[in-house]
Write a structure and sequence with these properties.
about 240 residues; DNA Methylphosphotriester Repair Domain; 13 strands; 3 domains; 4-stranded mixed β-sheet; alpha+beta; OB fold (Dihydrolipoamide Acetyltransferase, E2P); about 30% helix; 7-stranded mixed β-sheet
Amino acid sequence: MTVHSNYSKAIQVIAFFFTNQPVLRAMAVLLAVAWLWAYPADARTIRARVDAVFDGDTIALANGERIRLRGIDAPEVRHGSQPGQFYGQESKKLLTTLVLGKDVFTESEELSTDRYGRKVGVVRLGNGRIINLIMVEEGAAFVYPHSSDKDKGLAEQLLYAQRTAMSRSKGFWGRVLSSPEAGKAYVGNRNSKRFHRLTCAMGQKMKKTHRIHFSSLKEAFNAGFSPARECTPWPGDRYR
């Protein structure tokens, strides 16, 4: 993994004090570079090779760190005795094709840590394309908003990409939006941006002031809400 930072301003400030003393000035510059390399600025670009892909939204870098793609969620793949979800394998395959063995880039200021200890962030290919966005464009992942997401511009891009993918039946959308669950009503939580079946126990506990009603799956996904994990309407597992 390599880190790139802009040291010039800090170096200039330190060197300013030694303008009339060339030897001391040179020493100050060297010390400044060494110090800034050991303690890099908050904003920096991180470049690393992808060593593993776990599913359609989580990767492992060569330094052993896991990164979950911010703002999206992908269908689950099988984990031991836990069955996978519809399109989980296809989603993982697409992400594998995109990134495995390749260098990817992320900004340190875009990274945070989730409750599982994984880094969460925006990851880019060498050509600058955002992998999070590609997965949604291809119908291999859906929008998954979180309260920690501060980049409203990215959120808007992801939702636009999702609506476009839905209208074109890309990836899993053809099956999802034609399933028996698609025509049912759902209730969403305005705070968490999750939606539930009307029979879901967690959904029934929701405060009335937080509730928003949707007449179909399409309406819920179009509004940028994502299915609650407790009672997901995702199509049945094909690998049971």
